[in-house]
Amino acid sequence: MTDFSHLDPAGGARMVDVGAKPDQQRVAVAEGRLTCAPQTIALLRAQALPKGDVLTVAKIAGIQAAKNTAQLIPLCHPLTLSHVDVEFTVADDGIGIRATTRLTGKTGVEMEALTAVSVAALTLYDMCKAVDKSMSIGGIRVVEKIKK
Amino acid sequence: MTDFSHLDPAGGARMVDVGAKPDQQRVAVAEGRLTCAPQTIALLRAQALPKGDVLTVAKIAGIQAAKNTAQLIPLCHPLTLSHVDVEFTVADDGIGIRATTRLTGKTGVEMEALTAVSVAALTLYDMCKAVDKSMSIGGIRVVEKIKK
Amino acid sequence: MTDFSHLDPAGGARMVDVGAKPDQQRVAVAEGRLTCAPQTIALLRAQALPKGDVLTVAKIAGIQAAKNTAQLIPLCHPLTLSHVDVEFTVADDGIGIRATTRLTGKTGVEMEALTAVSVAALTLYDMCKAVDKSMSIGGIRVVEKIKK
Amino acid sequence: MTDFSHLDPAGGARMVDVGAKPDQQRVAVAEGRLTCAPQTIALLRAQALPKGDVLTVAKIAGIQAAKNTAQLIPLCHPLTLSHVDVEFTVADDGIGIRATTRLTGKTGVEMEALTAVSVAALTLYDMCKAVDKSMSIGGIRVVEKIKK
Amino acid sequence: MTDFSHLDPAGGARMVDVGAKPDQQRVAVAEGRLTCAPQTIALLRAQALPKGDVLTVAKIAGIQAAKNTAQLIPLCHPLTLSHVDVEFTVADDGIGIRATTRLTGKTGVEMEALTAVSVAALTLYDMCKAVDKSMSIGGIRVVEKIKK
Amino acid sequence: MTDFSHLDPAGGARMVDVGAKPDQQRVAVAEGRLTCAPQTIALLRAQALPKGDVLTVAKIAGIQAAKNTAQLIPLCHPLTLSHVDVEFTVADDGIGIRATTRLTGKTGVEMEALTAVSVAALTLYDMCKAVDKSMSIGGIRVVEKIKK
């Protein structure tokens, strides 16, 4: 039967007990996108891309957020991630974000990857908001999840 | 001239100095959406909506994240928000999220509203991920910003 | 000989070295109570119990605090808890709180359970303080501790 | 009519909007107690009181927790406390804890005082738990609240 | 009489009460230095300076740490900094670090500037430690403090 | 070939993937020093050493910072330290600081030891800054690193 693992039969919130799960190698990849005006990308390319700090600041924010996921999302378990990476693809009307998280442990790491993407996107938004009031963040989803 | 306030002329990151700005009443409203399978919403309605804990957990996560924005987004200023609210609209194929933030201070609060929406969406995703592997988060944007 | 493990022979604080301890399954259960006026419980039952958000907000606060115990209590070791649960019993003159924490690791988890109870109680206090100035929190203690 | 300020009419959680409140001098004093076996106090007096680190560690933990209250208690507002103090009274069967918090701001600081007491008590518990399995924490309450 | 403001007459720790102090414009500048082997700087220049991410990562870490000072240093007051900047000077045998912090408030911001320098230096150390085991961090001091 | 493990070939920041490393016992020892005026040490000895709270507050701050290293230094992995110790040596013109960190895990713990020393030094600085404007922090380095 289909089951919301974080909900009890009465709809109450619960943190899953992962204590009996085996330690396995786990990888997750998530993606998302900041969509902005083409002029914003043109300005970034003129002033701050590829060599300025914009993408580096967003990468660091994403990595730090991945490590902090259990403090942000109430029912997530604390994890000791072995790896986080955040990469960007600059297009003419936005910036694609892709985060990879790895762990040998008892629970999947897709929330950590999604959190890295989300906070990297928010950080890009913050750095561009003075020149573009029409940006949006979307397409945040898991694109790969491996357990072995 | 158009200007990235968080970038110096060489593209370097910088935190804006807001010390000379006046204290003003500031409000921001942001929205976003978790899109999921209609069956997921049907299951939530059967098991956990409107009276279960799902939306409350996401609301609390969003409020806490808004208060924590300056720790998540590197160039954001620490703020003492006077109000945060997070509301949800359950549709047949997703859940809409709307966050409002308020402050009397020197800098706008849209990053706090966007962060509340993002983390509330991630929290909903976390609670539904056991039953739906195809969800995505999108449409995160500022819908209102007031300064008076 | 009886020994304060967190104190050196001169009374100085020290963090115990748990590196040589074996990984074991560990469970702790702690309890506590918010005592309030019967009228406060009556009002909660009329306006917000059992279906409002009061207990859920306190549960989430308790779970988050348990995960954050090592940041709150200086000599506690950082842990990666596998499970936290917080339950409530509403009586006529107060609310009982019971927290359970689990871990496979080198050190017991009773401080995490006590922290969950304490912060859940503070959160209940916060939500009721506008209607009741005479509340108190007490009876916080460990009721079960298992190692196997 | 009596009102839970943190609850909406349907019992939903909400963070009060304090933006329209005036800045006032606010003080709160809270108390609590760790109750333990007389032998535990005798041992502390022999090994670690009054000159060892026990009370200092608990004081620091309480001060840090007071500053961190808005991260612990979901509906509390972030504050910039101007003062926190934590004092102890060692009795024959326990340790009394008293915390004072001060602020010039828009909202009261009793939750910060209660949090300081609670975390100081948990820290004392942690330092004594190796010699005493029967301790409890109680009597946590506000004893003074001033606004001027 | 000379006085340790953070110590009571018995040598006990205390957090100063700044509530009665006026709000003033405050600036602090601190400096420090990571000293390393000339070959390390040569390698950095070949592979990662001036355009790689090394200095940007350290800058972001310093800014974030400055905002987090009151959580790191027990008797520091929580502040809402209006500005933090961190700059670097690359020499042949090390990297100089200079941080500036600003606030309109009741207490000085030199601890925030010193913290930014320290954590930026630690971050540089972390990024270079795989190639240089002989590095050291020093010269951390306040070079300017203004109140007006 | 010499390699900056935290940098990719283009100088970009990256978090090393430690997932394939074996769990080993790891120890690191770091040292540093707060240099101050002899009169400051004389005053501390008269008012607050050896029995006052000064060194205890700095020790606790150092331990807490060690546990928090991965939140402070962007590319550090989250760790669950099994032990942290911070010791002080009071000289006539300064205070020496020595921190030891231990872990059974996949990555070294020297950044945790260096962070403990740095934050303990900043805490001492904070407590003495009212009486001495000429202090500096230096000599922060790793003095021992063991893996077995």
> In percent, how helical is the residue content of chain A?
25-40%
Can you say what the CATH homologous superfamily of chain A is?
A: Molybdopterin cofactor biosynthesis C (MoaC) domain
Assembly type of the chains comes to: homohexamer
Just name the CATH architecture of chain A. Answer: 2-Layer Sandwich
How are the strands ordered across the major sheet of chain A? 2-3-1-4
- C-alpha Rg of chain A (nearest Å): 17 Å
Cα(first) to Cα(last) distance of chain A is: 24 Å
What's the number of helices of chain A?
Answer: 4
> Could you report the average pLDDT of chain A, rounded to the nearest whole number?
93
Given as residue ranges, the uncertain stretches of chain A (5+ residues, pLDDT < 50) are none
InterPro entries (chains A, B, C, D, E, F): MoaC (IPR023045), MoaC_sf (IPR036522), MoCo_biosynth_MoaA/MoaC (IPR050105), Mopterin_CF_biosynth-C_dom (IPR002820)
GO molecular function (chains A, B, C, D, E, F): lyase activity
Keywords (chains A, B, C, D, E, F): Lyase, Molybdenum cofactor biosynthesis
Domain Molybdopterin cofactor biosynthesis C (MoaC) (chains A, B, C, D, E, F): 15-146
